[in-house]
Write a structure and sequence with these properties.
binds aspartic acid; binds arginine; 14% strand; alpha+beta; 23 strands; seven-stranded antiparallel sheet; disordered C terminus; 729 residues
């Protein structure tokens, strides 16, 4: 009986490894190609990644560090999400030309808008450099020495690895330090805005629909890569020309049906799929609830003001969206982990793991791992929590405190690096804070502070609260900080930062706001962070060994490395799901759903008359399907933050969709991927084309794309296959 249970568990672990996963593009051939073909893929691994010939990877750059984009024409036209281009669209907007509200379309190259500090980075090649990076490491004694040596090896290889003058090199660890990969990159910095739908399309449903299926959002925007005359990266110049890509995606007009093969190619940011049960339990029971409570309060305050005051609404729109995004994600994640029993699943996997260690006679190496995890996670918990409170309350959600912390760092710079460094940083802060104050409202922030500092002082681990702040009267503290601190206005800040070093330091230390941040900051840096780092270093080492053990003891299982912002392939099928009893979701949404959700005048669900007219006319051209216009669809591709803007690719390598989100029940996929309910959400490319063509009238953009009909072309082949199969059966 016991054996049977373990066997079943083992199979479950293996099955788990078969589904989901974010794979390294250069290793697909051995790892994934067969499974991909079984799922319906008609390409080979080398069509996706090839060093010597052009392949799909040549059309998939990272967009501005945190998103993904894809090249969709021979003239460097680039597609990504509306929420990825949001900052650029906003920065070109004025009250007269409000591209966020009305959209923007360049009808010719000269109308395209250059952007400061925007870059896209292509991967030229990927190489395994594990042996170089780990050279001489094993012989060293302590974890600190090992890490130092690894950093040295990385920086040496970084300097010496051969490359062209216009290329870069990045080295990243995989499997928690068990493998190292080197990436040769090419970054383009002249990237111009080409098109964006109005937010009522690109951000339709806003925060209410965020992380939710069924969805109806046209979350896309268009840019163009410019290069110098030799097609090389170059900073903006009017002499630059549209970039000629090594590869660009043809766009499929044939759309998708349930069970079609899909591949999503992009730059997933961070996952933690191999945490032990004890760590997952801490996320579910301790850290997520604390962070959610903090943001919940901050958001309620901001929302109250934003609903009453238009100017505040504009000032806080972007900040609100970004705080709400992860607040909502953590709620979904906690619910999902609870509902799927993730902690118990992990515990069962750990029991099976212990058994394997025993069978393999590896008790000495791996026998204590789980007990060590338990001990260290128990030790680190108060530090983790305290750190989360500091990050969320001081650095993230109370604006006066986060600015104050920068001033506190200024004082530290003076102590460590002297007057010159101090002055440079001081001038920088003084001149650069205009942006901050443009969107700052002291009244809003005061209310946020009052709520959040109360949580901080009463709910974060009490042993780390500075003595002088214990038993504080919150209302008095709030009035004294916001009633007197010079940091509440830009003029006040400039005043604080005027004069010689001694004057500035004296003024700062007399400011009530500054005094508070300083005492919180000092307590954190002295009593919390060092110990956190110390235990965390041990935990990283344990995680590395745990990963090594899993790789070693599951030789036949395919185990994918956690996301680390490097290029990955994930694949699956178009698929609905059943989130709870008696509820089943279809995999595709239609234009009809946009109109069903439409609420005139609502800030999340309003649409323009033009879109309603198009709906009434039903003039979908070649983009519709049986008189209906598909909008979004979902699939079983394992994605995470950073995959936004990733191409969704069909069996032949054509573009069918644009990734932008995940479904509510599956947001826990960063920690525990459950194939039954984890789905990624994509915009159907036909909706993108429809908006560009029929809504914006930007036929010029449609004309430079390559539109294809892969399904119609293959219809006979498919039929023949089906026949052949039925004969065999
Ligand atoms: N949830 C998606 C992602 O994590 C989309 C976020 C943008 N949309 C929003 N309403 N904030 O990035
Ligand atoms: N919306 C996310 C992004 O911006 C994608 C996700 O988390 O699924 O990358």
């Amino acid at each position: 009986m016991k054996f049977l249970k373990l066997l079943l568990l083992f199979i479950a672990v293996q099955m788990h490894a078969q589904q989901g996963g974010m794979w390294i593009p250069s290793l697909l051939e051995g790892m994934n190609e067969t499974e991909m073909k079984n799922l319906g893929m008609k390409m080979s691994a080398s069509d996706i990644y090839d060093v010597n010939n052009s392949s799909l990877k040549d059309a998939v750059p990272q967009f501005n560090g945190g998103c993904t984009a894809e090249v969709i024409s021979s003239k460097g036209l680039l597609l990504t999400n509306h929420h990825c281009g949001f900052g650029e669209i906003q920065s070109h907007s004025t009250v007269e030309n409000d591209y966020l509200t009305d959209g923007f379309w360049a009808m010719k190259l000269e109308d395209e808008l250059p952007n400061k500090d925007l870059e896209v980075t292509f991967i030229v090649k990927i190489e395994d450099v594990t042996s170089q990076i780990l050279n001489g490491v094993a012989a060293l004694g302590t974890e600190e020495e090992k890490q130092k040596k690894i950093q040295e090896n990385i920086s040496n290889l970084n300097k010496t690895y051969p490359r062209e003058s216009f290329q870069g090199v990045k080295i990243r660890t995989f499997y928690e330090g068990n493998q190292y990969m080197l990436f040769v990159t090419e970054s383009y910095t002249d990237i111009r805005l080409v098109g964006a739908p109005p937010s009522s399309i690109g951000k339709f449903g806003s925060d209410t629909d965020n992380w939710v299926w069924p969805r109806h959002t046209g979350d896309f925007s268009l840019f163009r890569i410019y290069a110098d005359k030799n097609n090389r990266p170059a900073d903006y110049s009017k002499d630059n020309v549209p970039y000629t890509p090594k590869h660009f995606f043809p766009v499929s007009l044939d759309g998708i049906s349930e069970d079609d093969f899909t591949l999503v190619f992009g730059y997933p940011g961070r996952t933690t799929e191999y945490l032990p049960a004890v760590a997952v339990a801490q996320i579910v029971n301790e850290t997520n609830p604390a962070k959610i409570e903090i943001r919940d309060k901050a958001l309620k305050v901001a929302d109250g003001f934003m609903r009453k005051d238009k100017a505040i609404k504009i000032q806080y729109a972007a900040k609100y969206a970004s705080i709400a995004n992860y607040w909502k994600k953590w709620i979904g994640e906690t619910q999902g982990l609870t509902k799927s029993n993730a902690v118990q699943v992990k515990k069962d996997q750990e029991a099976a793991f212990q058994q394997k260690v025993l069978q393999a006679g590896k008790q000495v190496e791996y026998g204590n791992l789980l007990a060590d995890f338990d001990k260290n996670y128990k030790d680190i918990l108060p530090y983790t929590l305290s750190r989360d409170y500091f990050m969320e309350v001081v650095l993230r959600n109370t604006e006066l405190l986060s600015l104050g912390f920068k001033l506190y760092q200024l004082e530290q710079i003076q102590a460590m690096r002297g007057d010159q460094a101090f002055n440079d940083r001081k001038n920088n802060l003084r001149d650069g804070s205009g942006e901050f104050y443009k969107d700052f409202n002291a009244q809003v922030d005061e209310k946020v502070f009052e709520q959040l500092i109360e949580l901080y002082l009463n709910k974060s681990p009490q042993q780390f609260i500075p003595e002088n702040l214990k038993n504080t009267n919150i209302a008095q503290l709030t009035t004294s900080v916001y009633g007197t601190s010079k940091m509440t206005t830009y003029d006040g800040l400039k005043e604080l930062l005027t004069g010689d070093t001694q004057t500035v330091l004296k003024n700062l230390n007399n400011d009530k706001g500054y005094q508070l941040v300083k005492s919180l900051g000092e307590a954190f840096l002295k009593n919390v962070n060092p110990k956190f780092e110390e235990i965390n270093t041990k935990l990283s080492a344990l995680q590395r060994t745990y990963m090594k053990a899993q790789l070693e003891l599951n030789k036949d299982a395919r185990i994918f490395p956690d996301a680390n912002s490097t290029l990955r392939v994930t694949y699956g099928k178009v698929k609905g799901y059943e989130p709870r009893d008696a509820v089943a979701y279809e995999p595709v949404t239609y234009f009809d759903g946009v109109i069903e959700k439409y609420v005139p005048g609502d800030y999340e669900f309003d649409v323009s008359q033009k879109l309603i007219d198009l709906y009434n006319k039903k003039d979908y051209g070649p983009y519709g399907e049986n008189g209906k216009m598909p909008v979004n669809f979902i699939g079983t591709n394992h994605t995470t933050g950073g995959n936004s803007g990733s191409p969704a690719i069909d069996a032949h390598g054509n573009l069918i969709g644009l990734n932008f989100d995940r479904v509510w029940e599956g947001t826990m996929s960063d920690i525990y991927y459950d194939p039954a309910i984890c789905r990624n959400i994509m915009v159907d490319m036909r909706y993108v084309l429809f908006i560009i063509d029929k809504y914006a009238g930007a036929k010029n953009l449609i004309d430079e794309m390559k539109l294809v009909h892969p399904k119609s072309k293959n219809q006979t082949t498919n039929k023949q296959k089906v026949k052949a199969k039925s004969k065999k059966n």
